């Protein structure tokens, strides 16, 4: 059976890339063609219109697409989660210098960011901060960080959408003052001397729901074998013994970054956060382990609660229940045998 599977180039696409490239899918009777998509909006539309059979997808975007809140409405289900965490906020060198927080502690960073943002807004030249899509955990984490510092993000910040692969160039050109994006693009920006990793997403929202495997809700005969293949590939990806091989695969086949060692750091959580080579280690930075694969309806409910808090979803409706119904732990259990 042949299927076309879309992904956006990020480290957490590793399970679907490994499933297609390392024989896990073929062992399940699937011939998977990977489709590298330039943006989440493109991936969303191609999945909804049937140009893709399945996708590595932002959890909030899968919900928004299914609820008709973003792009063409699509009947989707989520039979598997792909991981937790993986994001960070990177700011330009100029913004970091202006912030000059007392320490790397999240409260100090949030307060310093709020102080500069308030000052720039009062001067009539608000900070421009990038996020990868309005319906994303990245947007949620930016709002949580702003709230921690007492900042009204909508009132003080110009928030713009920048696809993950374009974030480094946007920083280089001065189009944005900072960005919340997934690995490896924060590390690529630091390696290029363009910015400083100011905050890790896993510290803003621990074990934050991230990417999911999204498939059509009905009639997808490939769902069970695809879940088995991606689950087994995910277990392989999470094994530290395979880190070098996986990093090389992502660098060469998925075109994430030219430096496989940089990708390996994002997999281990040992990040270089500035041009001086300062290392920050957090093993929870990106979780691809098997414990993250079962889709959790409570994650969908939490995401909808965050969407309500930022005005994307009207309160009082059934959006949380409808979102939770998309996440199908029963399909995951049936596919992997319990």
UniProtKB/TrEMBL annotation:
Q: Which organism is it from?
A: Methylorubrum podarium
**Mind telling me which Pfam families this protein's record contains?**
NMT1_2 (PF13379)
Keywords of this entry: Cell inner membrane, Cell membrane, Membrane, Transport
- Leader sequence segment: none
Name of the protein: CmpA/NrtA family ABC transporter substrate-binding protein
Q: Establish whether keyword Cell membrane is in the entry.
A: yes
Localization, per the record, is: Endomembrane system
Q: What is its main location?
A: membrane
**Which InterPro entries would you find in this protein's record?**
NrtA/CpmA_ABC-bd_dom (IPR044527)
The organism's place on the tree of life at top rank? Bacteria
């Amino acid at each position: 059976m042949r299927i076309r599977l879309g992904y956006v180039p990020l480290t957490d696409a590793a399970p679907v890339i490994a499933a297609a490239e390392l024989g896990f899918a073929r062992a399940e009777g699937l011939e998977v063609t990977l489709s590298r998509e330039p943006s989440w909006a493109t991936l969303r539309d191609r999945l909804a219109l049937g140009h893709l059979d399945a996708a590595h997808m932002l959890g909030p975007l899968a919900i928004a697409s299914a609820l008709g809140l973003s792009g063409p409405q699509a009947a989707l289900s989520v039979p598997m989660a792909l991981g937790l965490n993986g994001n960070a906020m990177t700011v330009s060198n100029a913004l970091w210098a202006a912030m000059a927080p007392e320490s790397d502690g999240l409260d100090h960073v949030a307060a310093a960011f709020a102080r500069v943002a308030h000052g720039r807004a009062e001067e009539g030249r608000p900070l421009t901060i990038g996020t990868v899509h309005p319906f994303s955990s990245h947007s949620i984490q930016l709002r949580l960080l702003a709230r921690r510092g007492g900042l009204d993000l909508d009132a003080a910040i110009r928030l713009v959408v920048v696809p993950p692969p374009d974030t480094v160039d946007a920083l280089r050109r001065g189009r944005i003052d900072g960005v919340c994006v997934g690995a490896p693009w924060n590390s690529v920006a630091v390696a290029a001397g363009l910015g400083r990793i100011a905050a890790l997403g896993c510290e803003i929202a621990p074990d934050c729901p991230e990417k999911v495997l999204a498939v059509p809700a009905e009639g997808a005969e490939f769902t069970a074998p695809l879940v088995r293949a991606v689950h087994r590939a995910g277990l392989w990806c999470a094994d530290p013994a395979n880190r070098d091989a996986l990093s090389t695969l992502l660098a060469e086949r998925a075109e994430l970054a030219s430096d496989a060692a940089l990708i390996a750091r994002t997999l281990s959580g040992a990040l270089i956060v500035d041009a001086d080579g300062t290392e920050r280690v957090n093993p929870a930075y990106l979780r691809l382990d098997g414990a993250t694969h079962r889709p959790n309806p409570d994650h969908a409910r939490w995401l909808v609660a965050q969407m309500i808090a930022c005005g994307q979803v009207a309160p009082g409706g059934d959006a949380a229940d409808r979102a939770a119904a998309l996440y199908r732990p029963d399909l995951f259990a049936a596919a992997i045998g319990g």
